[in-house]
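Hi there, hope your week has been kind to you so far. Please have a think about how the structure follows from the sequence. I've dropped the whole record in just underneath, so have a look:

_____
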Amino acid sequence: MTSFLRAAALIAGLALAACQLPGTGDAPQLYTLTPKSTFDPALPKVEWQLIVEAPIAAGGLNTPRIALQRSPVSVDYFARANWTDQAPLLVQTLLIESFENTGKIVAVSRESTQLRADYVLKTELREFQAEYDGAGPPLVRVRINGKLIRMPDRTIIASETIERAERAKKGDIESVVLAFDEALGKVMKRIVEWAMVAPGSTRSTLPRRNG
């Protein structure tokens, strides 16, 4: 091997090693949100099983990146800040935990399990972003549409759209994430309580199932 080729190989090796060194580059800071744990004490106990499907979402929200809007027709993302999962999957997990935290439902799970559900909750994540409206720190807006579907006939028995907005106390990312947590928590509480008292969702109205 000529001196030129040896030098080129050495430089390439050093460049590859540098790319693999821990701590190089700016990895995004990861953020998560919390499930809802407090509910109306009058919430009834239900004797049915529920599957919570992953929310559908537009491409701009179907990402682990934390979305922000500076105008109604643009979508951007906070730099070096991500959710711990794709936003719809994060919301699905938190909804499941929120239903479980009521202590008033027989079983709740995601669609990948073998749970024989009496109902399916389908949701659409329509808004999940921080908005810069010129009125101070960002306004976080969360809007989710939910449809409760009775199985096995797959009849929609109730539909509801819930929206909440919370203004961050400051403009830094930690304050924005806390505003996301507050807004999503209020939406999830409403979804859980709505689904568990939705017309037709009581045990007495369930179709008889053989076996």
Q: What stands out?
A: Residues 46-201 form a domain with the Rossmann fold fold (CATH 3.40.50.10610). Strands lie at 29-31, 46-52, 56-57, 65-69, 76-83, 105-109, 119-131, 139-150, 155-167. DSSP finds three helices and nine strands in the chain.
